[in-house]
Amino acid sequence: MVFGSPYSDQYPKGVWDGLKRSRRGKDIFGPLTSALNATRIYNHVLKHSKGYWLFSIAGGCLSCYALGTACDAFWRHVNKGRLYIDLPYKSPESDD
Questions:
Q1: Residue 4: left (phi > 0), alpha (psi -120 to 50), or beta?
Q2: Fewer Cβ atoms within 10 A, N terminus or C terminus of the chain?
Q3: Residue 7 contacts by C-beta under 8 Å, 6 or more apart in sequence?
Q4: Which residue ranges does UniProt annotate as crossing the membrane (predicted)?
């Protein structure tokens, strides 16, 4: 049998020890991974090159817009009353 073959049971002892120390079932992102796998998003979108690129570009644009909007809203909240837009506008008096 060839080393690395899934059908071989003649792995070195170090490989078996490494498999015993596996992180399977201990990962904090396990529920998230299971939820994403349940959506079958990989089979429908990410498996094909066009869908992958479209998903990546659209996801990047949307996340950039969302992050920018959130940062602007936070900035306006923290600096309320100190921004130019918050200054009261007084129109100049005419000399009629």
A1: left
A2: C
A3: 1
A4: 52-75
With contact defined as beta carbons under 8 Å apart, do 25 and 33 qualify?
no
**Spatial separation of the C-alpha atoms in residues 96 and 94, rounded to whole Å:** 6
Q: How high is the pLDDT of residue 75?
A: 97
Supply 85's token pair: 């837009």
| Residue 8 · residue 1 · CB < 8 Å | yes
33 in Cβ contact with 24 (< 8 Å):
no
Residue whose token pair is 């992102």: 29
- Tallying the residues shown for the chain, one arrives at 96
Task: Kindly report the average pLDDT of the chain as a whole number.
Answer: 84
Look at 10 and 35; give whichever has higher pLDDT.
Answer: 35
Where do the domains of the chain lie, and which CATH numbers do they carry? 13-86 (1.20.5)
* Single-letter code of the amino acid located at 86: D
